[in-house]
Amino acid sequence: MTTVYDCSERGQREDGLAAAASAVRAGRTVVIPTDTVYGIGCDAFSPTAVSALLAAKGRGPDMPVGVLVGSWSTIDGLVLSVPQSARTLVEAFWPGDLSIVLPHAPSLAWDLGRTGGTVMLRMPLHPVAIELLREVGPMAVSSANRSGRPPAATAQEAVDQLGDSVSVYLDGGPSGDPVPSTIVDLSGDEPVVLREGAVSVAAVSEALGAEVRVSR
Description:
Layout: E1 3-6, H1 10-25, E2 30-32, E3 39-43, H2 47-57, E4 66-68, H3 84-93, E5 98-103, E6 118-122, H4 127-136, E7 139-143, H5 155-162, E8 168-171, E9 182-185, E10 192-195, H6 201-208, E11 213-214
Parallel strand pairs: 1-8, 2-8, 4-6, 5-9, 10-11
Antiparallel strand pairs: 2-3, 3-7, 4-7, 5-6, 9-10
Helix pairs in contact: 1-4
InterPro entries: DHBP_synth_RibB-like_a/b_dom, Sua5-like_dom, TC-AMP_synthase_SUA5
Family: Belongs to the SUA5 family.
GO molecular function: ATP binding; double-stranded RNA binding; L-threonylcarbamoyladenylate synthase; tRNA binding
């Protein structure tokens, strides 16, 4: 059964966050508002839940899922090491529209798709998302849409595309312009912008104090 909770109403927000947390812990998928577009998410450490997320989207493991976190410090337990460049970008842009790719900690029991030993991390600037993340821990999250269709900018658009494949929808109102996050790969010898989104390449370069290469 699918339930949509209007998070603009205090009672529904509390009930919705509790239902979403329960669903995530049970290995089910939920839809949450973020500062970019709506996301479909699940427990990052449950391969079964991640498989269900990919199935809901109609997508395979060749397009791995990123991970949202609820605090700066969470990344220390998820990656092999945190270089100074990553800490600089975290301090400059988190919470916000910047995703960082780093080698993940080899001890972690997760399967986010064909990541090549890396993980894409972001802390979203949305109070509902942050509250849920701080309750349940890191979540595997992808845009709330069927593969090949536009990302959902409202909870209803997510419902229209994903339907009963998701058990809980948290409605945080329209997301605004559906601009994706900027992705910076820090897994190699030098930073590389894989996708320019809400944060400009110039802003990334300024934060790092050096011109950043853009992947073509």
